[in-house]
Design goal:
- The two termini are about 40 Å apart.
- With about 325 residues, this protein is of the alpha+beta class.
- The chain has two domains: about 110 residues, no CATH class; about 160 residues, no CATH class.
- The C terminus is likely disordered.
- The longest helix is centred in the first third of the chain and has 21 residues.
- A hairpin with a 4-residue loop joins strand 8 and strand 9.
Length: about 325
Amino acid sequence: MTYDINEDINEIKKNLNDPQVWLMYADVLQSKGDPIGELIAINHNLNILPSLPEGQDAYSLMRARDNVRKILEEQLKEKGISGILRWDHGYPREVYFEGTSEQRVLLREEYPLIQPIETIRGDYRVFSKLVPGTRRHVDELWKNRFAVPKSKNYMFWTTDGAIYFMGDDKPYLAFTRENQNPLFKNLDVAYKQLLNTRNYRVPDKDLESALADKATEVFDLDELNLNCYSNEYVYLNLFTTDPKLYSLDGDDRRLVERIYGKGDDFNTRRVYVLNPSYVREHASAGAIGWASWLYGFDFNSCFYAGRPGVNNHYALRGVVASEPAGES
């Protein structure tokens, strides 16, 4: 099977998990003298170890791959690309982009499988300008927090959904991925409700859908070791110079690892959630949803699983779907 790259690019995008598709694409790129083609071929051989051709070994291939990457990265920098984040079969599936809209168009024309990840600013509704599936969750932002060093003190909107509801007379938090974030399912209405009433009334069907999703994490707020901050907020205190010495376990650890990733890489200050008494008062008639946001990437970092002030202009990260690009 062969592809005409110009005619079949959408078909290729549907089969990006097929190594043979990448190899066919590599042949076309190599015929044009594009280093990405060589990179794909090298990574393919590395991925099928130990079935390497005689005379080749992993170390020589990795050295060759590094050399080709340097050439490619220089070419991408000329097109306004700040750095490469993730490689898949040798192809940079995602790169951080800090150029003009014209450079973005050129990048998409020359490398149509690249997803240029940008940092833009705006209120919560600006998520609609980013391509679904590329909009960043808090754990993804934290994992790649060093990719754009100047953003370490930014406040970021995150795509995580925070649904607070009552069950068996107990207050719960359902923490969702992007596809089950109830605010995204009715963004304009949710935006207005949060500004006018501070709570978005989550439809029953959206709560049921979120709870049925295996990626949704549910927490009993009464079981977390929370400290009171206000009538609205309580927090889990994480501030420590050595997080490995901080004995987090049970649901406390599960919540923190959902936010910052598995392990002990969470040398941050606090995680805020809604006060259980607030949930009892305001979610007794039905679930409520709030926006989530992250402050910074250093030891002063805080995460809020709930924010009513959705008109605040924070940073957002993902692939821009429409012009203008916004502020990089």
